[in-house]
Amino acid sequence: GARLTRARWSLYLSVGVIGLAVILLLAPLVGPGAHGRGVALMSPRAVWGDGIDATIFWHVRLPRTLAAALVGAALAAAGCAFQAVLRNPLAEPFTLGVSSGASLAAVLAIRLGVGQIAGTAGVSAAAVVGAIAAVAVVWQIGRVGSTLPPATLILAGVTVSMFASSAALVVQYSADFVDVSRMVRWMMGGLEWTPYATLARTAPPIALGLGALIWLGRDLNGLAAGPEAAASIGVDVGRTQTVAFGAASLLVGASIAIAGPIGFVGLIVPHALRAIVGADHRALVPASILIGAATLVVCDTLARMLYELPVGVVTALLGGPFFLVLLVRGKRGADLWRDG
User: Fold this and answer.
1) What is the mean pLDDT of the chain?
2) Is this prediction's pTM over 0.85?
């Protein structure tokens, strides 16, 4: 692709910022119409009044929109980092067992009654602990010396994911109907009734993780080319892998604390942007952050209008076909390469 210049970087950043700003302004104003049918646009004047529209805007839709932006930015940036570290354009945040570890901890918390004692915050905290534990186990299994070979890391992630998923099924089987319903609902991922307090708790770690990945942009370029190529241009491979892996895992854990497991955002956004922006992570990471935030806000707005579906269901419905298209294109490319 063309070399990244300051002008191109500024163009990508400007388009992303303006697009995200417009979506953030419009999304809280859009909602289901009367009796849940059609689309209704809330009057901007009503937002500043003291009626029911103002209450809905400030206490329901705005925090939900901000939460969607935070989670979308975090998942897309984490996916971008994992794709660089693993040198696999089809990698995503939940490839490494993080989602399954979080889900196992969450269903255990629900089964043990933590949700009844500490509410949703207790289940979210348990999910973050589960995500951290999964990351730690994958890290220990996949590490070879001071480096993280992609093949062993993916195998470790698949192993942890299968174990955690199986254990979660055992926990669900032993639970009653009410708890099973809560477990299934949590595992769908959603942003309903996100309070400002949750945003205040999770925004700092997300900002820290995003900042670390932006700072690592040049080093991620080296990692994506392979450890030998990275070392040849002065990249500390072990340190960069550790920081990138840790920052991406922090982003996924914080996202799970807000919304539960939401898939495909970390796969779709970086992969699609790589064809537009190019493979230079100095532009790809910031672009993924902005477009990831905008994408999940749009998906959540659609979810609100589609009978209040969990946003995780919407991303899965959109992401599944996208993933199949990628596989078909990759297969055709391989066939052409072999025939040629």
Assistant:
1) 88
2) yes
